[in-house]
Q: What sequence folds into this?
C-alpha cells in the first residue's frame, strides 16, 4: 500500500508530494489532466509574494511581515484567519531556497508588472517552468505520477481516509475501468470549482431577466477544476469555510477563450484610464490603490454590471505604462467613434468621459506611486493617476469576469488537516485552492495564491508523512506548524 496519496497536479500538490517523499514516505500523485495540460492553475502563474526584511537576490528593499499582513487584511476586509495568514507570510520568507533545490529559478520583476519588484519573486519561465521543474524533481525522487486520473470520490471511515476512487474513463481511444486506490494518508490539492458551470450558476443565481449570471464568466485557468472532491467531502460532513460567490476574479479581455487564457488576457490599464459599463457609465474608483492590490476585485465589479461586461478606456498617454494584453485594443481618433466601435451609447459615453476630464485635478503624475492626480466633483471618484482622456488615439478593451479560483473550501488549521465536526482528521490533509478560503475570505493581492499553496502544500506533505512516523529532515516547516 502507498504511504501518501496526493490528489492534484498543481503547485500545492507538487509541494506536498515532494515534502512527503523527502521525509521518506512512498508517494503517488494523481493528476486529472493529461500530461500536456498538467499543473492546474499554477501553469498560468508568474510569481510568489514574499516577506523579506532586507533585499534578497531578485527582491529589492524590504517587505516585512506586518506590511504583508496589512496588505492582506486590507484586501480581505478582515475576512481571514490571522494565525493561518501569518503562517503563510512567514513561510514565504524561507521557501525559495527549497524551491531552488527542486529546479525552480527566479528572475527580477518584469518591466510592466507594476509595483512588484519589492513584494513578488517572479519564476523564470513562468508557472509552466515551475510546474515542469517540480514534476522532474518528483519523478527523480521516486514519486509515482499518473495522468488522466480524475478522482470521483473519497472513501472514508469516519474522519479517516481509506481510499480514492477513479471512475471509468475514455483515454486516448481506450475505455479504462474504475479503480480503487488505498493509501495510509492523503493530501487533497485538487483545486476549486471554477470550471463547474452548474455550481457557478447555483452560487450566482439569475438576474432580473432570468439569465444565469455565471454564464458570462470566463475561466482563466484549467478546465479540470470541477470541484467534484470538494462537493463530495462537503456531503460527507467535512467542515467548510467561505462564500461560494467569492473568488479570485479578474476583469479580462472579453475576447479571451473560455478556458486557459491565463495571464496574457488580463487587462492591466484600468488604473491609467476609466472603466465604463455597457450604458457608458463609470461604476468604481479606477485609481483606488496600486494595481497588484486591486486587479482581482475588478472581475467581481464587472460581474455586478448589466450583462457582466465592461470597457477599459485609455488614451495615447497610457501606452507603454502597462503590460499589453494578447489582443489589441479597439482604436479610434475620437471618443464618439470609439463608442460606435465598442457598441456603447455614444452620447452617454462621451458625457461620462467629459465629466471625468473636467473633474481631473492637475498634479504630478507618477504611475509608480500613489500620486496626487485625483478627481473632484464626480462620482465615483478616481483617487490616483487621474488624467484627462484628451490625447488621441483612444483605445478600448472589452471586459468580462475571468475566474481564476473559487474560495469556498475545506476548513483546516496550522497542520493542514481536514476538519470534521471541529476535529482534525488523523490522515487526511488539504492544501492549495481547496483551503485558500481560510486565508482569503474575499479579495486578492498579487502572488498570494502561490504563497498559500506553497506554504500549505509543504505543511500538508510533511504532516501526512509525520502521521505515518516519517519526519522531514528540515525542521523549518515542522517548527512553523508547531508555533503558528
A:
Amino acid at each position: 500500500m502507498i504511504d501518501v496519496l496526493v490528489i492534484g497536479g498543481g503547485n500545492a500538490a507538487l509541494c506536498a508530494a515532494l515534502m512527503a517523499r523527502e521525509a521518506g514516505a512512498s508517494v503517488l500523485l494523481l493528476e486529472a489532466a493529461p500530461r500536456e495540460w498538467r499543473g492546474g492553475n499554477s501553469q498560468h502563474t508568474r510569481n510568489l509574494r514574499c516577506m523579506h526584511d532586507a533585499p534578497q537576490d531578485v527582491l529589492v528593499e524590504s517587505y516585512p511581515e506586518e506590511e504583508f499582513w496589512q496588505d492582506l487584511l486590507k484586501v480581505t476586509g478582515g475576512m481571514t484567519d490571522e494565525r493561518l495568514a501569518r503562517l503563510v507570510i512567514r513561510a514565504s520568507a524561507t521557501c525559495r531556497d527549497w524551491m531552488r533545490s527542486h529546479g525552480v529559478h527566479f528572475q527580477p520583476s518584469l518591466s510592466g508588472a507594476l509595483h512588484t519588484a519589492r513584494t513578488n519573486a517572479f519564476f523564470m519561465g513562468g508557472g509552466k517552468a515551475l510546474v515542469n521543474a517540480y514534476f522532474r524533481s518528483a519523478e527523480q525522487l521516486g514519486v509515482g505520477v499518473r495522468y488522466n486520473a480524475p478522482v470521483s470520490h473519497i472513501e472514508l471511515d469516519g474522519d479517516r481516509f481509506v481510499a480514492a476512487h477513479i471512475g471509468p474513463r475514455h483515454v486516448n481511444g481506450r475505455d479504462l475501468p474504475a479503480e480503487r486506490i488505498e493509501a495510509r494518508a492523503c493530501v487533497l490539492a485538487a483545486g476549486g470549482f471554477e470550471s463547474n458551470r452548474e455550481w457557478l450558476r447555483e452560487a450566482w443565481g439569475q438576474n432580473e431577466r432570468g439569465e444565469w449570471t455565471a454564464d458570462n464568466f470566463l475561466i482563466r485557468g484549467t478546465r479540470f477544476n470541477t470541484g467534484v472532491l470538494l462537493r463530495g467531502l462537503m456531503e460527507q460532513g467535512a467542515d467548510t469555510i467561505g462564500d461560494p460567490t467569492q473568488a479570485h476574479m479578474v476583469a479580462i479581455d472579453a475576447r479571451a477563450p473560455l478556458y486557459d487564457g491565463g495571464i496574457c488576457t488580463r487587462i492591466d490599464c484600468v488604473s491609467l484610464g476609466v472603466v465604463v459599463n455597457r450604458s457608458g457609465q463609470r461604476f468604481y474608483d479606477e485609481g483606488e490603490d496600486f494595481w497588484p492590490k486591486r486587479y482581482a476585485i475588478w472581475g467581481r465589479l464587472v460581474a455586478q454590471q448589466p450583462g457582466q461586461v465592461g470597457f477599459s478606456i485609455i488614451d495615447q498617454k497610457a501606452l507603454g505604462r502597462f503590460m499589453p494584453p494578447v489582443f489589441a485594443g479597439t482604436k479610434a481618433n475620437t471618443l464618439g467613434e470609439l463608442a460606435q466601435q465598442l457598441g456603447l451609447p455614444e452620447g452617454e459615453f462621451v458625457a461620462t468621459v467629459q465629466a471625468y476630464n473636467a473633474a481631473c485635478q492637475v498634479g504630478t503624475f507618477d504611475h509608480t506611486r500613489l500620486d496626487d492626480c485625483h478627481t473632484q466633483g464626480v462620482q465615483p471618484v478616481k483617487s490616483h493617476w487621474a488624467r484627462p482622456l484628451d490625447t488621441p488615439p483612444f483605445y478600448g478593451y472589452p471586459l468580462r469576469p475571468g475566474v481564476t479560483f473559487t474560495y469556498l473550501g475545506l476548513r483546516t488549521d496550522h497542520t493542514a488537516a481536514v476538519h470534521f465536526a471541529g476535529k482534525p482528521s488523523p490522515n487526511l490533509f488539504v492544501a492549495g485552492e481547496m483551503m485558500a478560503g481560510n486565508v482569503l475570505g474575499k479579495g486578492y493581492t498579487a502572488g498570494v495564491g502561490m504563497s498559500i499553496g506553497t506554504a500549505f502544500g509543504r505543511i500538508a506533505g510533511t504532516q501526512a508523512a509525520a502521521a505515518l512516523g516519517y519526519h522531514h529532515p528540515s525542521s523549518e516547516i515542522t517548527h512553523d506548524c508547531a508555533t503558528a
